[in-house]
Amino acid sequence: MSGKREENKRLTRLSILDAARMLFIRKGFELTRIEDLARQAEIGKGTVYSYFSSKEQILIELIGEERQKLVGRFEQRNDDNAPVSEQILTLFLCQFNYAQEHREISRIMFRESLFPVKPSIHQRHQVDNTYLNAVVALVRLGQQRGEINVHCDPLSTAIIFYNHYTMAISAWYMGYIETEHMVTNLRHLIETAIHGLQTSNNEPTTVQPLKLARLSAAPLESS
């Protein structure tokens, strides 16, 4: 009996998230109310609150699931033997392809990554760390192979790469970069970043660890 109860809970939670995904796309996050979510999921408003404390928490859970899908998509498509610059490109292209398929949800994810709702910042770090740690792992792989400067802090270097992607996707949303040029532009930005970590006389330059807030939950991996 308990197994059936747990399955019903799982299905109810999924129905709330599915309703949120649909309504956030149709109406936008700001205009969607808990009442709307309950109606779309065909459950009571109180039932929604028994699973999620707020609309912001629903958004965080939804983004977390989408992030996991992105990492899973990358793991399926990635060539482990390719140069690390190409593997980083593959990871970012998985995110960009998702943005093309789910433009509104991706826009919300992008906005929340840059400007999270303050009460949810702690939870947002847990969500984003899964994705950023994938970039950190690729940086470490590049350092092991001699493709990325070993003197650079992996986390700080990963953030440099991610910032390049952030600039590119922002320019795409604003219409400054056309879709067909994203692959070329992203590859150029990644290769430029790797080249920029070396000085002109081939002496290694150092990227020092950033002074980041350390949260107790799911900390980012560093060296």
TrEMBL record:
Keywords: DNA-binding
Positions of the HTH tetR-type domain: 10-70
Bilayer-crossing regions: none
Pfam families recorded: TetR_N
PROSITE patterns associated with the record: HTH_TETR_2
Annotation: DNA-binding region: 33-52
Listed Gene3D superfamilies: Homeodomain-like (1.10.10.60), Tetracycline Repressor, domain 2 (1.10.357.10)
GO terms of molecular function: DNA binding
The protein's name in its UniProt record: Transcriptional regulator, TetR family
Species of the source: Desulfuromonas acetoxidans (strain DSM 684 / 11070)
